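Notes to self, Interferon-induced protein 44-like:
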Amino acid sequence: MSSCKDAQLYEKTWRTAPQWSEDEMEHIKGEIEDYVPMRDVVGSEVRFPQVNILFIGPVGSGKSSFFNTVNSVFRGKVFNQARSGSGINSITTKFIKYPVLSSITKQPLNFRLCDTRGLEAKLPMSKENLKLLLEGHLPNRFQLEPSGSISSDTPGFIKYPNLEDQIHCVVFFIDATQVEAMPDLIPDVLQNLKDLQTVMNMIEIPQLVLLTKVDSVCKHVQTDISNVFRSPTVEHCVSKVAENLGLPRYAVLPMKNLENEVELNINVSILAMLNLRTILENADAFLFNKIDEIQEKYQKRD
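result:
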């Protein structure tokens, strides 16, 4: 990407951009604070507990860092709860459902960000294990060996998961600095992702991509993250990732996590909230197809 890292910014944005202001950040954050799954469809008589968002991606692609960034926004300070790093092997070894606490009530918000072991060339995730994970058979903090054998006799295995145990949206994490060389640098990991997509497509789970480290591929974005939707370099990365994974461009969301910062950055916070809102909207789209089951099983009871 070095050849186009210095490309001049477009005069107009290539995607609708937010207002880069404190008011905009608080507005989107407030929408997420108030989020209740399917509220606009099922009304107040039905209460679905929370949606589960699964993070999948190569080692070092920024899965745990995104959770830490989101968590920091709601904490009001940089707060690194999930272990993150850039080693050769995955730091995350368990399937973990992370809650995010409301900045107002200090209670968990109505979604869980689910991290799992980073994909490695020599340690791919099997389609069978992913299917069990998506269907809700694996409990929180399950020690997940991606290719290991899992059966109904495995300790903690949930034989009859409810809809609330399942995964409602999957987010792939791709490092923007690796995009141009994806087919050559991580062909096994890319193939693993494509294999896993066949399972997600079968279950009809929405798929998005968080394109991380966009500040590392464009000097203008590195200087000011608000330039992200005017950067031809970032737009190029979005198009390449969409092509490689067979997804529409709108499903690829540029992101810059908090990494070196010791204080919150308003524009990073806005981008994180914007992407999280899109993720929750896609989870709701999945639940919309389960509306009859939700209305039947999740009626409020006094």
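- The chain has a mean pLDDT of 90.
- The two ends are 58 Å apart (CA to CA).
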